[in-house]
Request: fold
Amino acid sequence: MLAALTAAPAALAAPPHRTTGAAHRAQDAATGARTAPGPARSTGHRRGTLLSVTPLGRQNRAEVAAEARKQGLAAGTARHGVAAYRLIYRTRTPDGRPTTASGLLALPVGTGHRPLPPVVHSHGTLARRGDAPSVAKGPDRAVSVLYASAGRAALAPDYLGLGAGPGRHPYMDARSGASASLDLLRAARSAAPGSAPPSAAPCP
Reply:
C-alpha cells in the first residue's frame, strides 16, 4: 500500500534558519561522516520526536536499478543515487502509551537543495522483526530506494514491534500503523528539512 502526499513542492520547504542537529547528522552521513545516535529532542514524550539517525549506506543509480530488478521491480524510474538511513523516533502504542519505533528514510543524491515530495511505502505482513525495511535489504527497502532514486523523499515505517522498535507487533492494528507512519514523517522532517510537509508538526 502506498500513500503519496500531494502537497505542492513549495509547501514542503523547511522554514529558513531552522537546520537542526539531526539534519546536520544526516547531511554529514550523506557525505561519509560518522553519525552517532542523537539524544531525544524533547524532555517530554512528543510524537514524532527524532531520537537517532543511522546511515545504512549509499547506492549509485546503477546499483539502485540492479537491486530493483533483483527484487522483481521495474527499474526504469531510477535516475539518482540514493542514501538510506534508519530513524528512531517517538510514537504511541494502540492504547496511548509512549513507545519508540524505527523506519527507513531514503533520499536521492545529487538533486541540490530543492524540496523533495515525500512518499510513504507501507509494507505488508512480515514474519520476522528483522525483515522490516530499515533492517533488511529486501523488497520493501528496494521499493523505497527506487522512489528516492526517482527524486522523492521516501519513507517506510517498520511499525510498532518490528525493526528496531521494542515490544510486540500489534498485527492488523490500523490505528498504530497510521500513527507510526505519520510520526515517521514528523521525524523525517527533523532529519532532512524539506522531506515532509509543515502540516506534519509534532503533537503531544
Summary: Residues 1-43, 196-204 have pLDDT under 50 and may be disordered. The CA atoms of residues 96 and 176 lie 9 Å apart.
